[in-house]
Amino acid sequence: MTGTYLGMPAFPKAAHDAVHDPVLRGNLRHATHTIRAKRARAVGELSDWAALREAGRRIKDHTLRHLDRYLVQLEESVTAAGGTVHWAADAEEANRIVARLVRETGESEVVKVKSMATQETGLNEALEAEGIRAYETDLAELIVQLGKDRPSHILVPAIHRNRGEIRDIFRTEMGEWGRPAPEGLTDTPAELAEAARLHLREKFLRAKVGVSGANFMVAETGTLVVVESEGNGRMCLTLPETLISVVGIEKVVPTWRDLEVFLQTLPRSSTAERMNPYTSMWTGTSDGDGPRAFHLVLLDNGRTDTLADRVGRQALRCIRCSACLNVCPVYERAGGHAYGSVYPGPIGAILSPQLRGTASEIDASLPYASSLCGACYEVCPVAIDIPEVLVHLRERVVEGGPAVRQGNTVVLQPAKGHAAERAAMRAARWAFTHPGALRTGQRLASRTRRLHPRALPGPGRAWSGNRDLPAVPPEPFRDWWQRTRGGKDGAK
């Protein structure tokens, strides 16, 4: 993965700075609590929510197990419907394909539907380097682009901005990108929305090329699906002469019947609506209706490697609803930028390190950006066990660094900066596999409990400086059980 997040500090440093910003904290707290409450009411209306959640999990797992077959079927269906399919192994290849397709049209600007895949690849920056200007048309993405900012939320990229900040951005920046903001613009939602509508309308009417992502791709028909709330996506998907869609390979579903499950769970989990206002679907091209040329760029960019991980692959079930962000106490306080990725929050903490690897400082820190409270798992509409994957990735960070080929074997190199933690984990493993030594150690710890420090020395201060060391009980559990229950060595 590439993009505008390179060079950002690791999560602990970024989060430390974010929690000292009272405006950011207030914006996040208000927004996440509001969305969280609305989602809970919307989900509570369905008596079969648990069954829908389980169905979504099974559909996604089945598709991932047979992804090769469904991707080939998808390509055949898209091609039969008049579209052209391109395969991109990584972000750079995807960007090259899109830039080439735009240049072939002779155009120098494109309008975009909100797309996390193109944010992941850094497409806007890549197109700019080729002399092509990309205009974001989603309201929140427009705010981020005008403010020379980064998205901080999956569903609401400008969640870190309040209405006053948005008004100021519109007043100062809109004129540089097209139609300026109206005179005397206030921060009322209706006026801000109208200013964005007027600014974007001229772009929609003159654009010849549209770029989109997709929420889902139906293998049996080659149909792509975008769900949205504003109508900007519908404009981008229907008015341009050429449509280019960049979509992660994990977004495929086998059949229309499978799609029905997600069209119930995604709106309720994301915008807390029974059904999203706009569901746009397109299949290839047709004479006299919509774009004359359709290109689908299927993006890997680390997804195949993620699929090979038995525990971590469940992150590929994600349908980008953002429910996990809205209930996460860490995200609420640190914000999305602290994660250093287009995928913030709990899902970003497990997806980004798998797509990018854990060799960098920021990606090695993300699995620790969680209290493991489990709220994210409880609200996930496809039952991704994010805490399980976080612990799994922590093990990967501790046990080894990047994978390096040695002859015909791929091995993990030792992770830098974790020698002490790795040694401690190995010592614990040895103790738990030697009951006699464990019993002796427990008795010794109980008898010397008065001598134990209140804080750890040396590097351990970073841990005990924010936590109370657990008190050692006066008697080991094994001894207590034997004394009170009469069992031998803790067993009846």
From TrEMBL:
InterPro entries: 4Fe4S_Fe-S-bd, 4Fe4S_Fe_S_CS, FTHF_cligase-like_sf, Helical_ferredxn, LUD_dom, LutB/LldF, LutB_C, NagB/RpiA_transferase-like. The keyword Metal-binding applies. Residues 309-330 form the 4Fe-4S ferredoxin-type domain. Pfam families: Fer4_8 (PF13183), LUD_dom (PF02589), LutB_C (PF11870). Residues 476-492 have a biased composition (Basic and acidic residues). GO terms for molecular function: 4 iron, 4 sulfur cluster binding; metal ion binding. Keywords: 4Fe-4S, Electron transport, Iron, Iron-sulfur, Metal-binding, Repeat, Transport. This is Lactate utilization protein. It comes from Streptomyces argyrophylli.
